[in-house]
Design a protein that fits this description.
Order of helices and strands: HHHEEHHHHEEEEEEEEEHHHHHHHHHHHH
Strand content: 5-15%
Strand order of the largest sheet: 4-5-11-7-6
Distance between the termini: 50 Å
Structural class: alpha+beta
Shape: globular
Number of helices: 19
CATH superfamily of the largest domain: Acyl-CoA dehydrogenase/oxidase, N-terminal domain
CATH architecture of the largest domain: Orthogonal Bundle
Number of domains: 3
């Protein structure tokens, strides 16, 4: 059995629960079938096992270096990306008109989870590049698509997103990077960007940076931001990469995890930039890439938690230690760790987190394949949860894996400590958990006079008719949300927005489990299905009750955190 991902679980989620083969009845996916979906899943698993997983540890121990001229990465990174690009997966979901395969997003997301679980550092270059190209296909001109997007989908170029700055961090309203028109349709880009994943390397012919900058005369705040293509090298009309643009690597950041992905401080020194769309709409365009990246981050958090769980499960079955509490004979043989109740507790909890998280990620991806005003709204509401919940709770599966390994788990000789370090980043990048909480409670559940929350709760209630605990939690969340906003004060409503995010996230995962149970054949005694029943039972009886105290706190409208003064700390 693979310790990267469970193909049996993916098959269950895709075919038995989500019924993705029904998507082939849609014109967009008519050329596909169960056979083509399986072929993509098979090749993804094969490449993940053969080309990505073997250098995951080396990626961590020999992180990228910068000698003042060039960035060096271990050679296996470029080799793995070359194989990945040759599969056609970078353009798998794109339109056929740009060379895409029009594969459903839900299948592509399942495929890419193999790479994220096998080697998150190498997979991140591909994730960012695909999201960058997707934005340009949506908002770029035909020339920009031809010059930049298509070479990214072909694997010649890679892409990044450049938002944060050293003085601003996540506060995009404080972006200082400037864009000055040159009079020839291009802009002179000047400024500095920080924490840029994939920001410099030698893995592609050039790097296409999507940069938020403030055009001359633009107003302060996010409404003054525009979006620019700023390539590392100039690209001629015929696609040839020529001399360097004014993009300078000021240095690499040294991270606790995700060490295989370069993380750069970039200086833009009179670099040539090309406006995407209209001035002043940069953040709106960038949200296309940011939302895709947020779902990708959630998927990566699930993948890391999932592989950690599978490694711990394998270890617990093989490692013998101790005896059952009722066995007092010291000469009796030691039993496998999995025979000890507390080890089984941690494994079951981890299973509930990672299989619930994977269900959420794939459910969200399928919403993209069935676009409608309702599904678009539901995806908007779910996105902060998809990003943040796995980043917290699937990381707990990594924590449990270390605990199950014991002292060995805390050493670099075993992989589970790396999985934990890698997963720790996911609560930070693409908007911290705190930002996701503000987004969910401050925008998503109240937009259109609460239409987003009503839609979410209606979907949950429709699937949870046989679960009084889930239905009660829906009623409670609805009432608490109304109470939080009845004063009209954002300070009061948002004082505990992170608690709201956690409560709503746990309710959504409970929904995912109740919904999965509907696809479990009644009366089946197969171990896989019984495992689904027990994991759902665990989540509903051990995890869902956690939201009670959170909702109590929210309902009280406690303002302790808003009232707290920095002198008190």
């Amino acid at each position: 059995m693979s310790t990267i991902l469970s193909r049996r679980d993916l098959d269950f989620l895709l075919y038995e629960w989500l019924d993705v083969t029904a998507l082939t009845e849609r014109d967009r996916f008519a050329e596909h079938s169960r056979e083509t979906f399986d072929a993509f899943l098979d090749v993804s698993a094969q490449i993940a096992e053969r080309d990505f997983a073997p250098h995951n540890r080396r990626n961590d121990l020999e992180e990228p270096t910068f000698d003042g001229v060039r960035v060096d990465t271990v050679p296996e990174v470029a080799a793995a990306l070359k194989v990945f690009n040759e599969t056609g997966l970078p353009a798998s979901t794109m339109d056929a008109s740009v060379g895409g395969l029009q594969l459903p997003h839900v299948v592509a997301r399942a495929c890419f989870a193999w790479f994220q679980a096998a080697n998150i550092g190498t997979a991140s270059y591909a994730m960012l590049t695909m999201a960058n190209a997707s934005l340009l296909l949506r908002y770029g001109t035909p020339e920009q698509i031809e010059t930049y997007a298509k070479p990214m989908l072909d694997g010649r170029f890679t892409g990044t997103m450049c938002l944060s700055e050293p003085q601003a961090g996540s506060s995009l309203s404080d972006v200082l990077t400037r864009a000055t028109p040159r009079g020839d349709g291009t802009y002179r880009i000047t400024g500095s960007k920080m924490w840029i994943s994939g920001g410099d390397h030698e893995l592609s012919e050039t790097i296409v940076h999507l940069v938020l900058a403030r055009a001359a005369g633009a107003p302060a705040g996010v409404k003054g931001l525009s979006l620019f293509i700023v390539p590392k090298h100039h690209v001629a009309a015929d696609g040839t990469v020529t001399g360097r643009n004014g993009v300078v690597l000021a240095g690499l950041n040294h991270k606790m995890g995700f060490r295989g992905t370069t993380n750069a401080v970039l200086s833009f020194e009179d670099a040539s930039g090309y406006l995407v769309g209209e001035e002043g709409r940069g953040l709106a365009y960038m949200f296309h890439m940011m939302n895709e990246a947020r779902i990708g981050v959630g998927a990566g958090a699930v993948a890391l938690g999932y592989t950690g769980y599978l490694h711990a499960l394998s270890y617990a079955r093989e490692r013998t230690q101790g005896r059952p509490v009722a066995d007092k004979d010291p000469s009796a043989p030691a039993v496998p760790l999995i025979r000890h109740p507390d080890v089984r507790r941690m494994l079951l909890a981890s299973k509930a987190y990672v299989e619930g998280g994977l269900a959420l990620v794939l459910y969200a991806a399928k919403l993209l394949d069935e676009p409608s005003p309702e599904n678009d709204l539901l995806l908007d509401v779910l996105t902060p949860i998809v990003k943040a919940w796995p980043s917290q709770w699937c990381r707990l599966a990594n924590d449990h894996a270390i605990q199950i390994y014991g002292g060995y788990g805390y050493t670099r000789e075993y992989p589970v400590e790396q999985f934990y370090r890698d997963n720790r980043l996911n609560s930070i990048h693409e908007g911290t958990d705190g930002i996701q909480g503000l987004d969910l409670l401050g925008r998503k559940v109240v937009m259109s006079e609460g239409a987003g929350l009503r839609l979410l709760l209606s979907r949950i209630r429709a699937d949870a008719k046989s679960s009084p605990a889930v239905l009660d939690a829906c009623d409670r969340l609805e009432a608490v949300t109304a109470r939080l906003w009845e004063s009209g004060s954002p300070t009061v409503a948002l004082a505990n927005s992170t608690a709201y995010l956690e409560a709503a996230g746990h309710l959504v995962i409970a929904w995912m489990w109740v919904s999965q149970l509907s696809a479990v054949p009644a009366g089946s005694t197969e171990a896989f299905y019984e495992g689904k029943r027990l994991a759902a039972r665990y989540f509903l009886t051990h995890e869902l009750p956690r939201i009670g105290p959170l909702l109590d706190l929210l309902e009280s409208r406690d303002t302790l955190l808003a009232d707290l003064d920095d002198t008190h700390l």
